[in-house]
């Protein structure tokens, strides 16, 4: 055996064992892995604003820990970033400033002074992007004249219109829903001395007499990623015209319609809601509609689902955990080690979590509430949340199949058939898979994105990651249940999905990722998907992918990308290798004809050099992203993908 290979091999199985044990040691009692799902900084101040309006503060200890979080996230320039570690935004600076004031920090506090100076230098509240202005209006810190109109009546338009709100990507739809109600009733907190003081602090001009209407579409350059389209500007003019003449009876009807939709979303999700923003806004709807009452209380009871107490304070997470997703990956990483017997107890527990958290029924009256089928799907977090997702369903199905022979009570074939059916139904016309729902409107509807801060929020496009995961799941399902009634549909779906992935490969051999940073993530998914559907390790697309990855390997043997890759649409390296991205790159190369290469050996050596005595890996740059601009933390990725990459490399190194 050549010396280099021998060196690479030495101790590798010990590293795998240690990583495996670390995974085992950190498994939660419910069989899943729990970790921080933070990162976005705009969530906590939104929550604090809402609880202030509702008049339901947190206990003192928690509030002090919120402040600790804000202090930790503040940038040296005084501002607050959109996501941990990012550059300062006017949006988050205004919101974090206001939230801390509401928590009782005085305006003269030196950190708040710095924050205020940064904000006022960039135009103050008038330069806050639309969602921020909306929140300020709720707090009575902005006039509704300065808020881009979101009339609830749009929900009453003919459903066949491509711009009907029911056709938006579900996350935008579910945020727009409560927003349109709150806008429709011009919901506003009563003006208190504390709020009056804030009006003097966050504006560059006196609040009284300020031309709010003219400020509607104003936004600081630091915050703009997707400028308002001309189409939206025209639409915004029309909506303002409509607002001037809107009649009471239609408004009342629209409000009642919207509130019923809000009610159904709350009930479908056990008051967790699809995401953190609509969670908070739905709670506010009930505060204003029912002046408190049982629904507000039910919302408050579920708030802890979203909170995470970390080393640097307590914050609001981007979802009510990533448990199902992480558990499905953890299972696959363990299976890659081949040490099923040794890991039997851990796998049994993990399987239990996956089994208990499959969604077993559709939501009630689902057509009326614009919901696709859910039965058989898996969510990202837990069953209580209730919204199944294409790739979470795929990863759930893959891991359930992988564990069938290793657990006492495997999930029934019926339930796996349901999952396969759902995956088949979700495939988009272009052959790819969306996140939650089959695309309901053409891609050009992105022109109606009013957020300025995010991209790709209007349409549930087809994604490389979702497509790859669904293809892998269908291939696994076909191998296990080849002769079911769906066989022909599966063949066709696989063919179309494969064509989609091939078409999305870029000239440089990479694929862009949308939910992880960035090209290493997208390329890992695409390579795994294409290999699963039958491409050979030396097929041209796989070779091109390998060449792409190898061209970005860092001198330390690792790979690392920053969120700038997502924003700029081209590879932007970190100075040093990162464990998660290195793992994705190694896992991709291992599936190519470069499995036995210096690049892989150096990647594995990098991973081993970073492994800690307990078998885990230290914290590093954020690996997750959404809507191109906002990073989100996947706490468990280091230990899961680190293990997976080492385990997958083990047999190659031993050849
Ligand atoms: C998520 C979390 C999970 C993620 C994956 C399953 C990993 C992905 O493969 C598909 C997309 C999905 C479901 C996803 C979409 C966008 C979400 C919901 C998030 C990143 C978590 C938070 C984010 C949500 C939009 C944040 C709220 C902010 C708004 C702009 C509404």
UniProtKB/TrEMBL annotation:
Return one GO MF term: intramolecular transferase activity
Q: Which residues form the signal peptide?
A: none
Question: Where's the Squalene cyclase N-terminal domain?
Answer: 16-276
Q: Which UniProt keywords apply?
A: Isomerase, Repeat
The protein's matches in PANTHER family, at most eight in alphabetical order, are given as: LANOSTEROL SYNTHASE, TERPENE CYCLASE/MUTASE FAMILY MEMBER
NCBIfam families on file: squalene_cyclas
One matching Pfam family is: SQHop_cyclase_N
Q: Which domain of life is it from?
A: Bacteria
Record-level GO BP terms: triterpenoid biosynthetic process
**Sequence ranges assigned to domain Squalene cyclase C-terminal in this UniProt record:** 322-648
Q: Quote the pathway field.
A: Secondary metabolite biosynthesis; hopanoid biosynthesis
Which InterPro entries does the record match to this protein? Answer: SQ_cyclase_C (IPR032696), SQ_cyclase_N (IPR032697), Squalene_cyclase (IPR018333), Terpene_synthase_CS (IPR002365), Terpenoid_cyclase/PrenylTrfase (IPR008930)
Q: Which SUPFAM superfamilies match?
A: Terpenoid cyclases/Protein prenyltransferases
Name one cellular component (GO) term.
Answer: lipid droplet
Family membership: Belongs to the terpene cyclase/mutase family.
What this protein is called in its record is Squalene--hopene cyclase
